Amino acid sequence: MLKLEGKKVVVVGGGMVAERKVTGLLGTGSHIIVISPNATDELKRLAGSERIEWLEKSFSKEDMDDAFLVFAATNDNELNQYIKMAASDHQLVTIADDPEGSDFHVPSHIQRGRLSIAVSTGGASPTLARKIREQLEQQFDDEYEGYLEFLFSARQRILKDVNETTIKRKLLTAIASKEFLNSQNREADLLRLLQNTRNDV
Asked: The whole model's pTM is what?
């Protein structure tokens, strides 16, 4: 759950593995730089639309200058290991063909507005992580995006308007229930809940 807004992220490699890494980085607000003499059609398209920067060259150590994250995603194990060795102490490197030697793993990820769910097998099986993610995508459908927006605004209101800690906790638990998730009019239900709470006090 790293905040990558404005950060430089380097992906070394231009094949399908590199493409998957780049696709996962899109939307993070990071400055994505791909280093490779060759690239997939999709990476070329992303570079053409200026969503990423593609340096059409072989890797050199200087390419990692000021990078926050580095993805060693080539099909050359020796080069991947060299990239890891060449990184500075403050840089995090993941190696596509060496999960144990990596500083971090990229989880399989679901985004539903403010809801973010990450699934990781610690590098043991990205395939299993993807399957679990697909199951979760069905369980947590698009309905959750609007629900999370409601929860955010309702929580702010409760924290501001309710002073009693016990009542505050009771209200926050209530709005996180299945009834509110399935409600056709959450705002009206919240007003009714707040009114009932005031009457009980």
From this structure: 0.72
